[in-house]
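Step 1: inspect the first sequence and its tokens.
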Amino acid sequence: QVQLEESGGGLAQPGGSLRLSCAASGSSFSMYAMGWFRQGPGKEREFVAAISWGGSSTIYSDFVKGRFTISRDNAKNILYLRLDNLKPEDTAVYYCAASTRRYLPTNDDENDYWGQGTQVTVSS
């Protein structure tokens, strides 16, 4: 199994940027497809982005496409999410997740391991 720990959240102004990191330990990081999800205040958790084992394939939700970038460094066992042009509606707890599925995980139940989350607040 793999343990995941997110970092990099915080307060950003509208139009600003943040970079989230998810450090993995335990099983081989490169075995897992990885994803980012988020849960805003009073909302259900939703898919943000996912990336394949080797990083060659990515997928994004429509509301972040063109603003967020998912990437991974398998040598360092770290998953990243670059958040640009942030909007107040991006305010949420952001979670990273690891999946043993042979496809990009876009639903909660397609992931096997979760981190504890990191808070992102977008406000002026």
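Step 2: inspect the second sequence and its tokens, then contrast the two.
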Amino acid sequence: QVHVAESGGGLVQAGGSLSLSCAASGGTLYRYNMGWFRQAPGKERDFVAAISWVASSTYYADSVKGRFTISRDNAKNTVYLQMNSLKPEDTAVYYCAAGQRLGILRNSYEYDYWGQGTQVTVSS
């Protein structure tokens, strides 16, 4: 069973950047499709970005397209989320998830393993 853990959250001003990391332990991420989700207070957990293990295909929510970039380094067992041009509405707890189903996974129920989350706060 693989365990994933997020890091890199923090406080940033609007327009700034943050880079999140998701490191795996207890297994390799090589054959997992990976995703990032976020949950703001009082709201549901929303899809942010996903990357497949085959060909590293990517998919983004419309709200972050052009600003966020998901990538993976299988040698380091790590997935990244580079967030640029951050807005106050990006404020949320960001979660990393690993899934064994095939394809780009865009729904939370398709993922098998979740991290504890990291807080991202964007001030105006």
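Step 3: confirm your contrast with the notes below.
Residues 49 and 60 are 4 Å apart (CA to CA). The mean pLDDT is 94.
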